[in-house]
Amino acid sequence: MEAFVSEVGRAVVIPNDNINTDIILPKQFLKNILKTGFGKDLFYDWRYNTDGSLNEAFELNKPEHKGASILITGNDFGSGSSREHAVWALTDYGFRAVIGGGFSDIFYMNSTKNGLLPIVLPEENRKILRGIQADETIQIDLPEQTVTYKNNIFHFDINSQWKEKFINGEDDIDNTMKYEKLISAFEKQRPNFG
Amino acid sequence: MSKTLFDKIWEKHVITGEVGEAQLIYVDLHLVHEVTSPQPFDGLRSTNRRVRRPDLTFATMDHNVPTKDIFNVQDQMSRLQMDTLVKNTKEFNIPLASIGDDKQGIVHIVGPERGLTQPAKVIVCGDSHTATHGAFGAIAFGIGTSEVEHVLATQTIWQVKPKTMGIKVTGKLPKNTYAKDIIMGIIAKYGVSFGVGYAIEFYGETVENLSMEARMTMCNMSIEAGSRTGMVQPDQTTFDYIEGREQAPKNFETAKEYWSQFYTDDESDFDKILTFDVSNLKPMVTWGTNPGMATAVDQYLPEIKDENDANAYEYIGLHPNMKPVDINLDYIFIGSCTNSRYEDLEIAANMMKGHHLAPNVTAWIVPGSRAIRNRAIKTGIAKIFKDAGCEWREPGCSACLAMNPDKIPAGKHVASTSNRNFIGRQGAGSRTHLASPAMVAAAGIAGHFVDITTDEFV
C-alpha cells in the first residue's frame, strides 16, 4: 500500500450528503477483474450525460479542478454496497484524501487498505473548507492530525493503528503473519462439533 | 460480568489486541462470490500465498447469473468473472456451487440453507448484506476486497470492536404485516445512518416469535440503517432450522449446548437501546431514493423538506399529495437476499392464488437458490406464479442490483422485495418501491399498491 504522511493539494467540493457507493462507482463497472482503471468511471452518472458526453457543469469536469487530490464532501459518505471498487475509483482518479462529516464503516475500512485517507471534520470546519478556490491548496499532516487551509488549522481524530498503517504503508497480510503462532494456537482450541 | 450476545461471541474470537484498538479476530466461515473475489485471488497468486482454510470457505455465483437462461451468459465481463471464480476455486481447492449446481444460489441464502451458518460463528463475505447470517446469533458482516484477500490468506481479520445497540421490538404483528415492514418501519423512523458504528441486536417478544426466514430479512437490512451487523439471539427456532441440514454439526446436542450460552445477560449492557412497537404497524412502501424514504401504505407521501427530498421526488416521478396506492406499477420483482426464501415465495403465492397480473405488469419471480426453486416447483407454488402470468426464473441476485440481464427500464416503476431503492440500482433510470413479498404480490395483481391489511385481504 502506498504510504500517506502528508499531502498538499488542491481540492474539489462535492458537498452532498449520503453519497453512496452506487454513486461513487455504479455497479456496471464492478465486472473488471483488476484493481486499476476505475478512475475514468468515478461518479459516472454525475460526470457524464446520458449520451456519454462530459457533463461540463459537474465539479470534477471543470478544467480548473484537474489534478485535485482532496475531495471535500458531506455526511455519511460511502454508504451502501461494500464494493472496494469505490475506493479504487477514487484513488485511481488521483484522490489521496476525502474530508467528510462521516463515513460508512465498510468504506472507512476499505480506505485504510488503499492509502486513501478518510478525514472526519465537523460541519463548522467543512463550511470553511467549502470556500476553497480552485487555485488554493489544503495541507494535510497525518502525524500531527491536522488539516490546514489559509489561517485555519483543524484537528482530526484517527485510530492510532490505522494512522501507523497509513504512515508506514504496511502490507496487512505480512503484518498479520507475525502472529502466525497465535493463530495456530487459536485454531487448535476452536470448538468443533463434527 | 454482564455482557451482550455480541460481546460474548467477539471475546471468543479475539486472537490478539485490546478493546478500543484493532483486534485480530478469527473467521469461522468465509463466503465468496464472483464479484469481489477476482482481485484477492490474484493478489494471493502474485505473493505466492495459499488459502489458509479452504475448509472454512465456500463459494457460489449470484450477482452476474442470468436468471432467464442460466447457462447463456451473454455479457463477456460477467462470463469472465464467473470463469475466473471456477478457475480460482479449483486452484485454491475451495468448494464451489457453480451455476446449475444443486447448491447454487444467492450467497446469503445458500449459507443458512446448507447449514453452514451457525450460532456463535464469525462470518464474513465481500458483500454488505452479510448481516443476514446474524439472524442465527452469529457475528456476520460485509468486508471489502482487500479484507477478502486477508481472510483467504490468514483466516483472520483486524477489526475495531463496534458499540452495541439493542432494538427492542414489541407488540403483536398485525395480519399481513411482516418482518420486512418492521425493518422498513425502523429505518423510516430512525433514518439510514443511526446504526453506523454499532452492532445491532434485535430482541423482544416480537422477534422471538419470528421464523428464521423473517429474522434473516430483518438482519439483512441492518446495513440499510448503517450497521454492518444485525443479530438475533439463538433459540429453539434457530436450532430447529439448522438440525438435519447438510453442514449441521454431527454432534448436534453438544453444539446446541454450546450455542445456548450466547445471549445478552441484561438489556442495560447495550451501549444504546431503541424501541419499536409493531401493534399498529402498516405495510411499508418506499417512495424515494433511499430506504429511509418510506411510508405506511395508507399515508400521504411526506412534504418536501429539503433538496434531498426534492431530488428524490423528481427522480421517482411522484409528488407529496399522493399515497402509495396511487403509484402505478410496470414491474414487480420478488427476489434478493432480503426476500427470496421459500417462506417469502409461499406468502407471495398465497396472495396471487387464483388471480392474474394486472395488464401491463411484468413480474419476475426469482427464487434465492436452486433448492428453493426445486421445492417451490414440487409444492405447486411455481405453478401459482406461472398461472398468474409471472416469469418463473433461475436463482441469482437478478434485478436487486441489475448486474445481470435483469434490468428495470428507465422511468418504469417496480415494486420490489429487495433492499435498496438507490438511483439506478435496478437499472439506469429505474424507479424502485421496496415492500414486503405480500405487498409486492398484491400490487402485481392490482397494478398499484394496495393496503393488504384491509378487510378485503385479511
Record the strand order, biggest sheet of chain B: 5-4-3-6-7
Residue windows where pLDDT falls under 50 for at least 5 positions of chain A: none
Strand content of chain B: 15-25%
The major beta sheet of chain A can be summarized as:
4 strands, antiparallel
Write the layout of secondary structure elements.
The complex is a heterodimer of chains A (194) and B (458).
Chain A: E1 6-9, E2 11-13, H1 21-24, H2 44-47, E3 70-72, H3 85-93, E4 97-100, H4 105-112, E5 117-120, H5 123-129, E6 138-141, E7 146-149, E8 152-155, H6 160-168, H7 172-177, H8 180-189
Parallel strand pairs in A: 2-3, 3-4, 4-5
Antiparallel strand pairs in A: 1-6, 6-7, 7-8
Chain B: H1 5-13, E1 14-16, E2 22-26, E3 29-32, H2 38-46, E4 57-60, H3 76-91, E5 96-97, H4 107-114, E6 122-125, E7 139-142, H5 145-154, E8 156-160, E9 163-170, H6 179-190, E10 198-203, H7 205-208, H8 212-220, E11 229-231, H9 236-242, H10 252-259, E12 272-277, E13 284-286, E14 294-296, H11 307-316, E15 331-334, H12 342-352, E16 362-365, H13 370-379, H14 381-387, E17 391-392, E18 413-416, E19 431-434, H15 437-446
Parallel strand pairs in B: 3-4, 3-6, 4-5, 6-7, 9-10, 9-12, 10-11, 15-16, 15-18, 16-17, 18-19
Antiparallel strand pairs in B: 1-2, 2-8, 13-14
Helix pairs in contact in B: 2-5, 6-8, 12-14, 12-15
Subunit structure (chain A): Heterodimer of LeuC and LeuD.
InterPro entries (chain A): 3-IsopropMal_deHydase_ssu, Aconitase/3IPM_dehydase_swvl, AconitaseA/IPMdHydase_ssu_swvl, IPMI_Swivel, LeuD
Organism (chain A): Leuconostoc pseudomesenteroides
What does this protein look like?
The complex is a heterodimer of chains A (194) and B (458). With 194 residues, chain A is α/β, with parallel strands linked by helices. Chain A has one domain: Aconitase, domain 4. Chain A is 29% helix and 15% strand. Chain A is globular, with a radius of gyration of 19 Å. Chain A is built from eight helices and eight strands; from the N terminus they run ββααβαβαβαβββααα. Chain A starts with 5 loop residues before the first strand and ends in a 5-residue tail after the last helix. The longest helix of chain A has 10 residues, at 180-189. Chain A has helices at residues 21-24, 44-47, 85-93, 105-112, 123-129, 160-168, 172-177, 180-189, and strands at 6-9, 11-13, 70-72, 97-100, 117-120, 138-141, 146-149, 152-155. The mean pLDDT of chain A is 95. In chain A, the strands form two sheets. Chain A has a four-stranded antiparallel sheet with strand order 1-6-7-8, with no helix packed on it. A four-stranded parallel sheet of chain A has the order 2-3-4-5. Chain B is α/β, with parallel strands linked by helices. Chain B folds into two domains: 5-275, 2-Layer Sandwich (Aconitase, domain 3); 286-446, Aconitase, domain 3 (2-Layer Sandwich), CATH 3.30.499.10. Chain B contains 15 helices and 19 strands. Chain B has a five-stranded parallel sheet with strand order 5-4-3-6-7, with helices on both faces. In chain B, α2 (38-46) packs across α5 (145-154), α12 (342-352) crosses α14 and α12 runs parallel beside α15. Chain B is globular and about 55 Å long. The chains are: A alpha/beta (194), B alpha/beta (458). Chain B: Residues 7-447 form the Aconitase/3-isopropylmalate dehydratase large subunit alpha/beta/alpha domain. Chain B: [4Fe-4S] cluster binds at residues 337, 397, 400.
